[in-house]
Amino acid sequence: MSKLGNYVQEAYDELLHKVTWPSWDELQQTTLIVLAALGLVTMVIFGMDLASENVLKFLYKILGS
Asked: Where does the sequence pass through the membrane (predicted)?
């Protein structure tokens, strides 16, 4: 068997016999955690964007006069 064929066979065996797949409940729980974290990070970035926009508008207003 070639090196590639051997690699594919070993990867397949590892996938079937050594990988521990999460249960449906664990999968749902971690998905909700990831979505919550994503929402939090999105709100933080939005807040930083809004704050920097207001600061720059203020500076342009002061320096432009």
From this structure: 31-51
What digits encode the pLDDT tens for the residues 27-51? 999 999 999 999 999 999 999 999 9
* Residues with Cβ within 8 Å of residue 22, at least 6 apart in sequence: 30
3-state helix, strand, coil in the chain (%, to 5): 85, 0, 15
What letter does residue 65 receive in the DSSP assignment? -
Rounded to whole angstroms, the Cα distance separating 34 from 26 reads 12
- The domain limits of the chain are 22-65
